[in-house]
Amino acid sequence: MYATAGRWDAVKELREMMENKGIKKEAGCSWLQIKSKLYTFVAGGCTKFRSSVEFKMYWDKLENSMKELGYIPDTSVVLHNVDEELKASWVCGHSERLAALAYAIICGASRAAPPAWSIVLIGLGWLPHDSHL
C-alpha cells in the first residue's frame, strides 16, 4: 500500500521492521512439467538458464515482437523506488512466468513430435494487470 502511494519512507521502515522480525516475502514461483520432470522457476532466479545463449536469442525475438505490437510495460506494478528504465526491465525480465514459458518453448520445440504439443504452467496464483501471459 505504501509503495503504491509513493510513500518510500514508510516502505523502507516496513521492510526494515519485517527484516528485524525475520519476516520474508515469498518470491513468485511457477512450475513447469516436461514429460515426467518438474521444473521450478522463481522470480528473479533461474540465472543459469536466463544467461544461456538459447534464452537470450529467444528473449530478444520475444521482446522485439512485443515492441512491434506496441507493448509498453506498465511500470506502475513495480513497487520499488528505482528509475523507469530499470522498472521496465523488471516487468519483463524478472518474470518467472516468462522464463518458464521460454524454457518450455525452447525445450519443447527441440523435442516436439508432430502434430502439436501444449504448455501448461502451474502456480500462476495471481496475474498482475501487466501480465504478458
Describe the structure.
This protein is 44% helix and 11% strand. The chain has 133 residues and is mainly alpha-helical. It has a 3-stranded antiparallel sheet, covered by helices on one side. Helix 3 crosses helix 5. The longest helix has 16 residues, at 53-68. The model has no long low-confidence stretch (mean pLDDT 77).
Radius of gyration: 17 Å
Beginning-to-end CA distance, first to last residue: 25 Å
Silhouette: globular
Reading side by side through the largest sheet, how are the strands ordered?
A: 2-1-3
Instruction: Return the average pLDDT rounded to an integer.
Output: 77
The main β sheet shows up as: 3 strands, antiparallel
Structural class: mainly alpha
**Domains, number:** 1
Number of helices: 5
The amount of beta strand, in percent, is 5-15%
The low-confidence runs, each spanning 5 or more residues with pLDDT under 50, are none
Protein name: DYW domain-containing protein
InterPro entries: DYW_dom, E_motif
Organism: Stephania yunnanensis
Domain DYW: 70-112
Secondary-structure map:
Elements: H1 8-20, E1 29-34, E2 37-42, H2 47-50, H3 53-68, H4 84-93, H5 96-111, E3 121-122
Antiparallel strand pairs: 1-2, 1-3
Quick overview of this protein structure:
Residues 70-112 form the DYW domain. This protein is mostly helical and 133 residues long. Helix content is 44%, strand content 11%.
